[in-house]
Structures are given as C-alpha cells and as structure tokens.
Amino acid sequence: MRYSGLKVITEGLFGNKGWGRAWRDPAPKAEYDAIIIGGGGHGLATAYYLAKNHGLTNIAVLEKGYLGGGNIGRNTTIVRANYYMPGNSEFYSHSLKLWEGLEAELNYNVMHSQRGQLILAHSDGQRDTLARRGNAMINQGDDAELWTREQVRDFAPYLDFEQTRFPIYGGLMHKRGGTARHDAVAWGYARGADRRGVDLIQNCEVTGIDIENGVVTGVQTTRGPIRAKKVGMVVAGRSSQVAAMAGMRLPIESHVLQAFVTEGLKPIIDSVISFGMGHFYISQSDKGGLVFGGDIDFYASYAARGNLPMVEHVMEAGMTLMPMIGRAKVLRSWGGIMDMTPDGSPIIDKTHIEGLFVDAGWNYGGFKAAPASGWCMAHLMATGQSHEVAKRFRLDRFRTGHVLDEEGTGSQHNLH
Amino acid sequence: MRIPCPLCGSRDRREFYYYGSEDYLNRPTDQGTIEELDNHLFLRHNPAGITRDLWYHETGCTSWLIVTRNTITHEVLGSELVADRKKGA
Ligand SMILES: Cc1cc2nc3c(=O)[nH]c(=O)nc-3n(C[C@H](O)[C@H](O)[C@H](O)COP(=O)(O)OP(=O)(O)OC[C@H]3O[C@@H](n4cnc5c(N)ncnc54)[C@H](O)[C@@H]3O)c2cc1C
Ligand SMILES: [Zn+2]
Q1: What are the structural domain ranges in chain B?
Q2: What is the complex's ipTM, to 2 decimals?
C-alpha cells in the first residue's frame, strides 16, 4: 500500500479500517541468496539497499526478537555529519545526504527534522578545536558555523552564561544536524525491504553459523537451519556472541548507555545542544519530552539498564548547563547495549571466512549511520568490494595500526 | 553497584576506575607476535555472563583488582588483587 495524504483522509473518514499490515510475516525458507542477522536499523537498511541497489531480493533478515526492539528503538535520535577524521567524515556526510531524501525514498514519515545541532565551547582551546572541526566539515561539503558567545546567547538564552566553572565561549552550529523518529526508521526500511520481496523473519534467533572448509554455508536458528552463501552479521551490541559462533574474537566490548526523557513540556529547546565538558546532550521530542543523555556507564554490560552514579552525573551536568531543567520531572530512563571499539569507529568488512561479513562497532553513534551503513554493507555483500566511503572501516585496522580515533582518547574500549 | 575490595571491604562503585578485560594482564614480551599484541590490547571475548575485568581502587587503597562479575545481571561475585596473581605466577 502506498501511503498518501488522500489515503490518510479517506481512512480517517471510514474508521481507519482499510490499513493493511505494513509487512508480511513469512515462514523461513530452506535457502536464501543472502541472510542478514539482526533486524535493527542497520540490518533492515542493508536488506533494503541489497534489494534496491543490487537487485538481490531472495534474501532474509533474521531477528531474534521483534523488528526495532534493539538500539534502533532506544537511542536519542541525533542525526549529524560533523566528524573530523578522513574515513569518518565522508561516511557520515553520505549518510546525512541519504537522510535528507529518506522520506521520499521510503514513502514513510521518519520525522527527520534538521533543527540544528550546537556544540558548546568552554575554553579558548575548545573553540580552536571546534573551528578546526568546522573547517573539516566545510571541506567535506557539509555545513558548519562558528558562533560567538553572543550568538549562542541569542539562540539559547536559557543556558547558564554566568557559571564560572564552564563558561560558555561560543559554539559550533551544524544546521543540517537534528533528530528523527527512531522507530519509524526501522519500520520504514522494513516496509521498503518487504515490498521488494525481502523476508523479514522475527522471533528467529541465530544460534550457529555453518562453515565448511572456510566457506559459510548457512545458519542454525531457533526456527531451523537456513542455507545461504552470504551471511551478514549486523547485531550491534551482540556482535561478539554472533561472531563467536564463527570462532571469531572481535575488537569490541559491550557497554550500557542510558538515556532519559521528561514529561511533555511546551516547546523550549528547538535544536540539539551538546555540552561536552559535562558529557551531556539534550533535545526536545515532538511530543514535548526533553530527551537527554550522557556517557556510557564505563564498565562492560549486557544489562540494557544502567546504574545510579551515571544517572546522578547526567542530572548534575544538566543542572550545570541549564538550571531550569530542574523543574522538569523525569518520566523514564532506559539503556541499550553499545558495541564499543578501541578507537570509537565502526567496522564494515569481510571476515577471514568466505561469504561471512560483519557490520558492527557502532559505539553510541550508529543511529545517524544507519542509512549509509546499510548502503555500504549492501555494496560489500553484493560486490565483494568495500564501498568508497566505508573503505577505512576495516576489521584488522587495530592490528595494522590504521585506527580512526576520532576523539583521540587511546585504545581503551570504554573511552570513546 | 558495590565492589568488594580484598583490602577495604565492600565499597561504592564510584571509588573505582574501570579499565577493561583481564586480557590486559596478558602482555606479550618484546619477542611476542603481532597477534599476541592484538589479543592483549584490542580483541575481546566480551562475554554475556561471567566476566573477569580490571578495576583500580582509585579513591581507596589504590590497588588493582580482578573483579568477577556477571555482565547480564550486574551481580559482583568476587575480587582478588592483581598483585597476588603475580605472586602465584
Ligand atoms: C540510549 C542510547 C542513545 C543513543 N543515541 C544515539 C544518537 O543520538 N545518535 C546516534 O547516531 N546513535 C545513538 N545511539 C546508538 C544507536 O542506537 C546504535 O548504534 C544503533 O542503533 C545500532 O545499530 P542497529 O540499529 O542495527 O542495532 P539494534 O537495533 O540493536 O539491532 C541489532 C539487532 O540484532 C538482533 N540480534 C542480536 N543477536 C541476534 C541473534 N543471535 N539472532 C538474530 N538476531 C539477533 C537484536 O535483537 C537487535 O534487534 C544510541 C544508543 C542508545 C542505547
Ligand atoms: Zn581497596
């Protein structure tokens, strides 16, 4: 079914009885040309672009839970292209361009809102770093503006400009940055892939990867064995467990990242604001809730829920930046399992097993990456070659020394 | 989360600095291979379940500990001093 304004009006008039399922619920076939393990944003986008860009439609996405139940439905929805390092810069730039056409592409409202992202500077050194980052963004063809303290004050007068610990020196505004509706991205890609013939199989956990003489032949699942010559592992926080089924050890440690939302308030924060000194960032959802978060909890975890010290730290940082936030009531908090790499950058690569591919290591920044990750993973699985904008996301780059340490914090998994 | 320190007893998690997996203790010698270095610094089993990782009792006795924990439940099962491990080896 094609969605349109007319359809919304007619359905509204006739009791919304004519809406069908957004995608089918097929039983798994015995064999596919390719299998994607993981029905998150990246897995669904990979399936969509395999079908759309490469004409591969005899494929399946295997999801152990329900589509969109992982990190794709748990993140704080920030979409931006403000990376500095060659390797990352062109990739996120490509992703933002895909975002800008995504709703028309998918005929689905993903509520992509380019409301701008402002990163604050709190010292001369930080302002210089932001200027350098801004120049890299402009060189990449994206947008960046270095704002003075007065410009920041005009834009966000509610920030605490009087504080002496972290005085605001200015900021870097990325106007094409913003937010999107996270679930809708999963649903839009799912519907698009399904319409092109992809089987989306839920409640189907992969429990083993079949390999014969170094070549992948299929997977074992809770719904029986399924054969395929190409298998992509796209399972984010669970990457280490799935890779272990193929006898691999990945450069990944899983950590919990928490986020928070307040009760719905009238519009007050009309962009995304990042407060690097306090590890705090905030935006306001279309429903009115203030959506904010901070750093990971810092120790390896699969609990998908965090601990109180980080809750306290995030609240303190919020109060430091904008004291008015203390009047809002926190409604909910939650956590997701983050696949942290030793340099903070992702992996989209082949493995040493023929036909087995890996897309992982998204740290806490994989929402914005979902379109380009799907695009590049599909390219890799279809052609056997890395896509031009993802060619530095190599699996062996730590061993070879070609790390992409965007934040320059060293080789500890939890420091990115 | 509270972490038992063999010297200080049960202490608040905030007193500790988390470093990472026990793999960091398996430092290759200067004759070691690049694979050993990769395993030491970067590659991880990253278990969903029982893990052993390194914590530094930063605002306590400043000892390095190996803590045995469950990564799914956040249950802390025990700890030992890294210094003791070296003595045993
Ligand atoms: C609190 C929080 C805030 C975040 N904020 C942002 C942000 O503002 N901007 C941003 O860019 N990113 C953000 N992220 C990161 C982003 O959400 C993730 O990097 C991204 O969603 C990961 O890719 P995915 O969508 O494919 O993962 P997921 O949705 O987790 O998909 C992986 C899927 O694999 C499935 N799976 C696992 N094992 C198996 C198996 N054995 N068999 C079958 N299926 C399996 C899982 O059930 C899951 O559905 C945030 C994350 C969190 C938790
Ligand atoms: Zn101690």
Answers
A1: 2-88
A2: 0.95
